[in-house]
Amino acid sequence: MRFETKAIHVGQAPDPSTGAVVIPIYQTSTYAQEDAGVHKGHEYTRTSNPTRDALQTCLAALEGGTHGLAFGSGLGAITTVLTMFKAGDHIVCGDDVYGGTFRLFDKVFKHLGIEFGYVDTSHPDRVAKAIQPNTRMVWMETPTNPLLKISDIRAIAAITKAAKVLLAVDNTFMSPALQRPLELGADIVMHSTTKYIGGHSDVVGGFLAVADPELHTRLKFLQNAVGAVPGPFDSWLTLRGLKTLAIRMAAHERNAVTIAAWLAKHPHVEAVLHPSLPSHPGHLIQKSQASGFGGVMSVRVHGGLEAARRVCRSTQLFFLAESLGGVESLIEHPAIMTHASIPPETRTALGITDNLIRLSVGIENVADLMEDLDAALSARS
Ligand SMILES: *Cc1c(COP(=O)(O)O)cnc(C)c1O
Predict the structure, then answer these.
(1) Which of 6, 52, 149, 195 is catalytic?
(2) What's the 380 CA to ligand 1 centre distance in angstroms?
(3) 206: which of 71, 106, 215, 357 fits an S-S bond (Cβ 3.0–4.6 Å)?
(4) What residue's CA is closest to ligand 1, atom 9?
(5) Could you tell me the domains of the chain?
(6) Residue having the nearest C-alpha atom to atom 1 of ligand 1
(7) Ligand 1, atom 2: nearest CA belongs to which residue?
(8) Cα of 205 to ligand 1 centre, how many Å?
């Protein structure tokens, strides 16, 4: 079965008791047992639920994994991964990861004694140098957020395999429709399903996919023990979104590639950061490991902070909002909004400048989106 077919059929056979072609929302916390300990495979919904099982089976298959685990948020998924480790363990992390990931590592797990080293993973040699005897995992995103830096998953997987440490890739920006890190050598793929997988900005969720049954057993134990699970309705909404992932990603991609090329020549724009542009330093690596460039880009506008704020409040179709990956286009200001938890000095050093805005290009008509951006870039108040 190919990707689009898997999205509709894997884990989603018609309901045996009614023939319903859509997996029902099993909105139940517990399951009646025939005799003490005799049940039909489910005991309590934190541990398992048929709606969540369908999502887990389907999305794991789309990622090229053997097993999947769903969570109540992307950060719930990351937290659960981190509970595999203990004080004194060391994790190498990308220096340009999602702001909430950095906050979780730096403000929560660091205080529990887990050590972190931050490197620019777009240079695999720096990852190799950062690995210490107590390193247990490398955590990376590609493309990164919001600078769209590209890291070579195959090259980093070769390094982590040799060092016998886990490689976890946050694949939120690409989704399995465009990039499948397990097939490139990663051990764990993580998603905020809030973004492209749910795809309609109506549900928060997280996911882990693995291709190693032993790693699955460890993480499944922690999914139940930690308890950061999604409810049946949220699982159902996410599975509903998943069915159209392939066609939505193709539409996001088409619009974003068109807009990136157009913005790169716009007089009010200083620079466009999107891997589709041949001038992007990660363009060729992106082409070698993914089947597209994704719908998120960042733009440096002329005129500093004030100009960037003006653009953000002037668009009509691009809503000024955090998040990304929904069918509607969004615009945001990373330094003030999504990446405010990163200290200003670090932000500037990374390149998250005050004139940087991030776009999540939706699936509206691209001509309408370009007219909207053009008017906002030219706005004077
Ligand atoms: C949103 C996001 C997260 C966090 O996921 P939540 O669902 O908001 O908890 C992690 N990584 C990336 C790249 C994200 O965009």
Answers:
(1) 195
(2) 34
(3) 71
(4) 74
(5) 3-242 (3.40.640.10), 246-378 (3.90.1150.10)
(6) 192
(7) 192
(8) 9
Question: Which of these is catalytic: 52, 95, 98, 347?
Answer: 98
How far is the centre of ligand 1, averaged over its atoms, from the C-alpha of 104 (Å)? Answer: 11
Verify whether residue 98 is a known catalytic residue. yes
The one-letter amino acid code at 333 reads: H
Q: Point out the ligand 1 atom lying closest to the alpha carbon of residue 173.
A: 13
Known catalytic residue at 106: no
- Is 40 tagged catalytic? no
Strand, helix or coil for residue 163: helix
CA atoms within 13 A on the CB side of 153: 26
| Residuewise pLDDT in 10s, the chain (381 residues) | 999 999 999 999 999 899 999 999 999 999 999 999 999 999 999 999 999 999 999 999 999 999 999 999 999 999 999 999 999 999 999 998 988 999 999 999 999 999 999 999 999 999 999 999 999 999 999 999 899 999 999 999 999 999 999 999 999 999 999 999 999 999 999 999 999 999 999 999 999 999 999 999 999 999 999 999 999 999 999 999 999 999 999 999 999 999 999 999 999 999 999 999 999 999 999 999 999 999 999 999 999 999 999 999 999 999 999 999 999 999 999 999 988 878 888 888 889 999 999 999 999 999 999 999 999 999 876
Q: Is the CB of 146 under 6 A from ligand 1?
A: no
* 230 within 8 A of 85, measured Cβ to Cβ: no
98 C-beta closer than 6 A to ligand 1: yes
Give the position, in ligand 1's atom list, of the atom nearest the Cα of 205. 7
